[in-house]
From TrEMBL, chain A:
Coiled-coil annotated residue ranges, if any: none
Highest classification ranks of the organism: Bacteria, Pseudomonadati, Spirochaetota, Spirochaetia, Spirochaetales
Pfam family, one: FAD_binding_5
Domain of life assignment: Bacteria
Domain FAD-binding PCMH-type: 1-169
Any one Gene Ontology molecular-function term assigned to this protein's record: FAD binding
Organism of this sequence: Sphaerochaeta halotolerans
Listed name of the protein: Molybdopterin dehydrogenase
TrEMBL record, chain B:
Pfam families registered for this protein in UniProt: Ald_Xan_dh_C, Fer2_2, MoCoBD_1, MoCoBD_2
UniProt domain Aldehyde oxidase/xanthine dehydrogenase a/b hammerhead: residue ranges: 187-299
GO molecular function: iron ion binding; iron-sulfur cluster binding; oxidoreductase activity
Family note: Belongs to the xanthine dehydrogenase family.
Key word Ligase present: no
Organism: Sphaerochaeta halotolerans
UniProt name for this protein: Molybdopterin-dependent oxidoreductase Mo/Fe-S-binding subunit
Length: 277, 959
């Protein structure tokens, strides 16, 4: 439960406030922090609302999405690729989409995240801000997979923006839930490139499994890149053997294993057919 | 504390707020009470929607301090009940304003949409409403509401038809005239119990059991009682030693009295352990946390199968008593009773055997089923399982009570104010004249507010403390301590000949009533009584057995047992047709009942007594079947063009009842006011379905006056007369019937008075618009105001009044058929409901626009029940999905792509102006129609709810 609400005036101010207040958290849309049974622990909220992080800009070879951009802004912007709009629509409520932000959704990295599997698979980069131990402000540009792999270590890091490359790359995402606003059992994200000689490269497979978090299926990625997995069935079998699952209210382990493999297989198949970019 | 400045609905506020305060709490504190809460900050249901800096948001998910400098609009920014804006009015006219807890939020969103889009698409409307949960009326007519609003804005009047009209000779009945309480509801004005709570109230909270089955060995409230603000703590040790039943049914109830306010034995996770009353909510919570309880934990049983096992733990093992009809061996039977279990008191024998966990049982038959099965070419026997479903009213169960003039006065959200009064009277051991129940607008009931789940405890606590007390369930408590749909295991055996004739049907219904026996006989019997009479079959038999277990409580839910029984019976019939190699539709047409067919099976299907055998009366079943088959193009295969998606079609015949003949009883009275306007007092409890509008129409139609000349007072036990309540589809037929009779009695008395005043014969007088008496003989007129004035002068003959009482043994059964087309993904198991056509015969639909919306709402909720809704318990009986987003309910995104509700025009011979019931029956069709369509698509029979992708994949052998 939030007991104190502070408004940061600059990104550096936000980081300083975070450092000087124990049990503080960055406050973006508030949909996760304020909701019933929130898993976000914090007593001091540091609002990012005044930092100007709520714009989407065309940077030439990249699209820069401020971390405070709402999911509905993603859907409404002509700059945003279809796959990311699809992911944003996984949040079934328009009202909630007006509040929830891309940065907040990434920072939570929940097992039913709308955006994380697709965004991480897309090989986006993150613009971040930090304070050194001596309190010196610095900004960085990191691969999003690092943010995923070492997520706990980024607890004090402020997400400034997500940078999407305009490279020719297939990205797709699928969500499996009983209804539009049920918790998802599984959300999958897949991306890859294919050059003129039809060589598959830069494969990324991420799966959010309820109860087991957001997982990178690196072995599956490597096997596809190495040409060991060439068909949809191959990929499905590999995912089934790789993904970590658990029984819970969203479905049995068997189901989650099956549907994760089906989802990745479907995206791989679409990729092979030259599906939407 | 922070001081912020914000603008709400154009008014600037400088306010101090706690940093943890939510924006919703602040807005309510500032008086914007339309910003409601139905999900405890879950960010799901949308009752807390506001427009924040021109963007729709959930106020519960924002901190108040965020609003510094913000411009906020709440539902109060729109029109008032006397000056509605165009979308508010259109929502009422379209029929979507029913229980209406979320109507102001929906109106706010649509108003915002029209401010930003002059001609919004269906997709845009769908998007804007995607964060609003509507359980009662569905979403289909919201599209109509926007269309109507646009037409009004563009041309000054509606161009589209709102609904079909019925009975040309009538002016108000059968015509869409709007709901009389619609304006106050859509405007978000004070309507609900929470709006009646006055400052200075005390809060009550409940300590609930963490165990599914346990004795309370010791409970220590000493420390808690000494805490600041604590007024009283009620436990099993100091509550009245009175056994009763929470089900609001006719007295004597066909449910055992198997509980006290608080019991020494807890029987489900969430069962009451202690009730704490304190000056503030926070103090009550703190005291609750300080109570120390020692339990003796017992092994629980959760399923019918577990309860049936030899040597199974006994959920009730106390003394059994009978108020009548006690068996001779009762003393012997009670020898093993454990006093810690309390008692089970039957009002009359229900064939219960609590030592075997049997709460009630019933059996009956016509003809000779064994002979029938021998005559069959094919016999099918299958078992069908339904799951535990939550009613999920947006307004949770709540009550506010106080002492006034030495009496207990309670504002309640109930379907049964007179049963509340009776049961509270019984529990408190005070006479009924000391109790007044005021039924407020009900923000969703669906059967769960037929049960007295909170009023008993609030009433008792108020009576003993003398303090005003407010209690409100949390959403989690709604899941774990509320009435739900009984899980049932139904085995159906059906035999048929090659020509499609059904030769015999046997239904074995095993129901799971959970910890207490609310509706334990009647819901499971309903699985037979509202299904078997659909079939023209001479040999039918049923066995119904209901078991106590330790799951969360069950009770009444819209449709009662019929949705489950219909699912089992219709799917079994489809399986039989499949095995016989004949078309299921042909089989239905061959075996369906027709007008005049004598329903012998009803004899064994009374509610705790012998039922009335009657012939089929008004019946639109054949029209529903033929029209529905044509609409869905039955028999025509559809190719999805995508090999992963297979398309199939299904349907189900359905029926319900119109109240309980011979059991239900309704009363109403009406009076002519001094200015010639009218007031009618109905005992009926309008739970949002438009019952008050029906009462008003009875007067309007009789006296040729517009609806705004009629005021309806209902559900107030002080001013209104007895009514058994709004359940069993009795509202229109019984309560409406009483209002009809009261209106007719008033008319007779008014004509008598007019004859006296005019010096004419009553038979020469008629009533005509705009509200006057006209002599067909002399041509003289007398307006109602003059008539009333003269009747009430010092030489007058007294106020003109009328009264009506409605009972009947007639069974006016509504019939229908629901048709569906689905696409099933053979790789993922996903089901898309492409088409859903609900065709129903409601006799004369008195409020046709409301009737249509109830059909949409009920159909959609049963689609949810069939495809994904289900309460899940862990191995200890803990509900693991007690929130909306974990449980899953249908939102606008889940609507069928092509959704149509069709009213079949049939006039009933008994109901008021030919009306029958409408809404409950609409919950019966989805499950069987979907199961049959899924089979048609992919060849697997779905024999248990919900038909989840996981189950479909398993049936397909994919996993």
């Amino acid at each position: 439960m939030i007991q104190e609400y502070l408004i940061a005036n600059t990104t550096e101010d936000a980081l300083n406030k975070k450092r000087s207040n124990a049990k503080s958290i960055f406050y973006a849309g508030g949909t996760e922090i304020n909701r019933l049974h929130s898993t976000v622990e914090g007593q001091t909220a540091i609002s990012l609302s005044k930092l100007g992080l709520d714009t989407i800009t065309d940077e030439g070879s990249t699209i820069k999405i401020g971390s405070m951009v709402s999911l509905q802004q993603l859907i409404d912007s002509p700059l945003i690729p279809t796959w990311l709009k699809d992911a944003a629509r996984f949040c079934g409520s328009f009202t909630k989409r007006n509040m929830a932000t891309i940065g907040g959704n990434l920072a939570i990295m929940s097992d039913h995240s709308y955006l994380a599997p697709a965004l991480i698979a897309s090989r986006a980069r993150l613009l971040t801000a930090n304070l050194t131990e001596k309190g010196v402000y610095s900004e960085d540009n990191i691969p999003i997979r690092e943010y995923h792999a070492y997520h706990k270590q980024f607890a004090g890091t402020l997400l400034l923006a997500v940078s999407l490359s305009k490279d020719d790359r297939f990205v797709g995402t699928l969500r499996y839930a009983l209804s539009s606003q049920n918790r998802a059992a599984v959300t999958v994200g897949f991306s890859a490139t294919k050059d003129n000689e039809q060589v598959i490269d830069h494969v990324r497979v991420f799966v959010a499994v309820h109860g087991k978090g957001v997982q990178r299926l690196e072995k599956v990625e490597n096997a596809i890149e190495n040409g060991e997995l060439t068909s949809r069935e191959d990929v499905q079998l590999a995912v089934r053997h790789t993904v970590e699952v658990v029984d819970d209210m969203t479905g049995s382990s068997d189901y989650k294993r099956y549907i994760a493999s089906e989802g990745v297989g479907q995206l791989f198949s679409a990729f092979l057919k030259g599906g939407a970019q | 504390m922070n001081t912020i400045v914000c603008t709400v609905n154009g008014k600037k506020h400088t306010v101090t707020c706690k940093q943890s305060e939510s924006l919703r709490e602040l807005l309510v504190r500032l008086g914007y009470t339309s910003v409601r809460d139905s999900d405890d900050r879950e960010g799901f249901a949308g009752s807390d929607t506001v427009i924040y800096n021109d963007v729709p948001v959930y106020a519960n998910l924002m901190l108040a301090v965020q609003a510094d400098g913000a411009e906020i609009k709440t539902a109060e920014s729109m029109g008032t009940s006397r000056n509605l804006n165009v979308i508010q009015q259109a929502m009422i006219d379209a029929g979507v304003v029913q229980s209406a807890y979320n109507a102001p939020a929906a109106a706010l969103l649509l108003t915002w949409l029209l401010e930003h889009e002059s001609n919004p698409s269906k997709e845009q409307i769908k998007q804007v409403l995607s964060g609003i949960f509507i359980r009662d009326a569905g979403y289909e007519h919201y599209y109509l509401a926007v269309k109507l609003a646009l037409e009004k804005m563009q041309s000054g009047s509606y161009k589209s038809e709102i609904s079909p009209s019925f009975r040309d000779e009538l002016t108000y009945v059968g015509k869409p005239k709007g709901k009389v309480d619609g304006p106050q509801l859509v405007a978000g004005e004070a309507s609900f119990v929470e709006d009646r709570v006055l400052p200075g109230y005390h809060s009550m909270v409940i300590l609930r059991s963490p165990y599914a089955h346990a004795y309370i060995k010791k409970i220590d409230t000493k420390e808690a009682l000494a805490m600041e603000g604590v007024v009283t703590i009620i436990t099993h040790e100091n509550c009245p030693d009175v056994f009763y039943m929470q089900a609001g049914q006719g007295n004597p109830e066909p449910s055992p009295h198997d509980r006290r306010l608080l019991n020494r034995k807890v029987r489900h996770v969430g069962d009451r352990v202690a009730a704490i009353v304190a000056e503030t909510y926070e103090q009550a919570i703190a005291a609750r946390d300080a109570i120390k309880v020692e339990y003796e934990v017992l092994k629980p049983v959760f399923t019918v199968e577990e309860a049936m096992e030899k040597g199974a733990p006994r959920v009730h093992n106390g003394v059994v008593e009978y108020r009548s009809g006690a068996p001779e061996n009762l003393e012997e039977y009670n020898k093993d009773a454990d006093p810690r279990d309390g008692k089970v008191v039957y009002q009359f024998p229900l064939h219960g055997d609590i030592r075997r966990n049997i709460a009630a049982a019933a059996h009956g038959q016509i003809g000779d089923v064994e002979k029938g099965f021998k005559e069959a070419d094919v016999v099918v026997e299958e078992t069908y399982q339904t799951s535990q479903i939550q009613c999920t009213p947006l307004e949770p169960h709540l009550a506010y009570a106080r002492i006034d003039g030495g009496r207990l006065v309670m504002n309640a959200s109930t379907q049964v104010p007179y049963h509340v009064r009776r049961i509270v009277s019984w529990v408190c051991q005070i006479p009924e004249n000391k109790i007044r129940i005021i039924k407020e607008r009900v923000g969703g009931g669906y059967g769960s507010k037929q049960d007295i789940l909170v009023e008993d405890l609030v009433g008792y606590a108020t009576w003993i403390t003398g303090k005003p007390i407010y209690y409100r369930n949390t959403r989690e408590e709604e899941f774990i301590a509320n009435s739900t749909r009984h899980p049932m295991r139904m085995t159906v055996k059906m035999g048929g000949k090659k020509d499609g004739t059904i030769t015999a049907v046997y239904m074995d219904v095993r129901a799971n009533t959970g910890p207490y026996g609310n509706h334990c006989l009647t819901v499971p019997m309903n699985a037979c009584s509202k299904t078997l009479p659909l079939l023209k079959c001479d040999n039918m038999k049923f066995d119904v057995t209901t078991y106590y277990t330790n799951i969360p409580p069950t009770g009444a839910y819209q449709g009662y047992g019929a949705p489950k029984g219909t699912y089992a019976l219709m799917v079994c019939m489809a399986e039989l047709a499949d095995k016989l190699g004949i078309d299921y539709y042909d089989m239905a047409m061959k075996n369906k009942v027709e007008p005049g067919y004598m329903l012998e099976i009803l004899k064994g299907l009374g509610e705790g007594r012998e039922g009335n055998v009657v012939p089929v009366g008004s019946c639109g079943l054949e029209q529903a079947l033929t029209q529905g088959a044509k609409m869905i193009e039955w028999g025509k295969k559809v190719d999805s063009k995508d090999p992963d998606w297979k398309v199939g079609k299904g349907f189900a015949m359905i029926q319900q009842g119109s109240g309980l003949p011979g059991l239900d009883h309704s009363n109403a009275w009406a009076k002519l006011l001094t200015d010639g306007t009218f007031q009618i007092f109905s005992g009926g409890a309008d739970l949002g379905t438009g019952l008050d509008t029906i009462s008003a129409k009875m007067i309007s139609e009789a006296f040729c006056v517009p609806l705004d000349k009629v005021t309806v007072t209902s559900g107030d036990t002080d001013s209104c007369t007895f009514d058994t309540g709004a359940y069993a589809s009795s509202g229109t037929y019984f309560s409406g019937g009483a209002s009809y009779k009261a209106a007719q009695d008033l008319k007779k008395n008014l004509l008598d008075e007019a004859a006296y005043q005019m010096g004419e014969k009553a038979e020469d007088l008629i009533l005509r618009s705009p509200g006057e008496v006209y002599s067909t003989k002399s041509g003289k007129t007398l307006d109602y105001a003059t008539l009333s004035h003269d009747a009430l002068t010092g030489t007058g003959r007294g106020q003109v009044m009328g009264k009506g009482s409605f009972t009947t043994n007639h069974n006016s059964i509504p019939y229908g058929a629901h048709f569906v087309q689905v696409a099933v993904n053979v790789r993922t198991g996903q089901v898309k409901v492409q088409k859903y056509y609900a065709l129903q015969d409601a006799g004369t639909p008195i409020n046709p626009e409301l009737a249509l919306c109830q059909m949409y709402g009920a159909s959609l909720k049963s689609i949810g029940h069939s495809l994904y809704e289900q309460m899940l318990l862990d191995e200890n009986g803990v509900c693991i999905n007690p929130t909306f987003s974990e449980y899953g309910v249908p939102m606008i995104a889940e609507q069928p792509e092509d959704f149509k509700a069709i009213l079949i025009d049939i006039n009933d011979e008994v109901g008021p102006y030919g009306a029958k019931s409408i809404s409950e029956i609409a919950t019966n069709g989805a499950a069987p129609a979907l199961a049959i369509a899924i089979h048609d698509a992919v060849g697997v029979w779905m024999r248990s709810w919900p038909f989840s992708p996981e189950k479909i994949l398993k049936e397909l052998g994919k996993m």
